[in-house]
Amino acid sequence: MAEKINLTPYMRSLLLEEICKHMDIIDYCSCFYNFILKPSIKNTFTGNCPFCSGDQSFTINKATGKIFCCVCKREEDFLTLMGQKEDRDLNNTLKVLTRYLETKEKVKPAYSGGVI
Question: Is 18 helix (H, G, I), strand (E, B) or coil?
Fold first, then answer.
């Protein structure tokens, strides 16, 4: 049985930062959770809250992975959102993300040389 992962807040923020660098969490939320998120201010997208259904009260920061709802006052992060939407603990959430990122990496076109 796999050992349960416990992250300090600092380690969690570092992990979120890396996840946000390597994947488009807005695209992930749109594709897998059917969220309609619209650009708001720099790196921030807004939409209806997936927890309380508050109209345009939900914000997610694309660079940090932080989420917030003005109605239900839920202040979490992308890992928590993903875990709750998919009913997974942190271990399984990270496994899913690993597979997702590995799959995206495999479909990247190979560098063929020349000027980029």
Answer: helix
Could you tell me how many residues make up the chain? 116
Q: Residue 38 CB: number of other CB atoms within 10 A? A: 9
Place of tokens 């990247």: 108
| Predicted confidence (pLDDT) per residue in 57-97, tens digit | 999 999 999 999 999 999 999 999 999 888 999 999 999 99
Q: For residues 81 and 49, is the Cβ–Cβ distance under 8 A?
A: no
Q: 3-class SS at 75? A: strand
Dihedral over alpha carbons 79, 81, 86, 90 (to 10 degrees): 30
Q: What are the pLDDT digits (tens) for 35-63?
A: 889 999 999 999 999 888 888 999 999 99
Euclidean distance between CA atoms 53 and 71, whole angstroms: 9
State how far the Cα of 68 lies from the Cα of 59, in Å rounded to an integer: 5
Q: Give the helix/strand (H/E) hosting 94.
A: helix 90-106
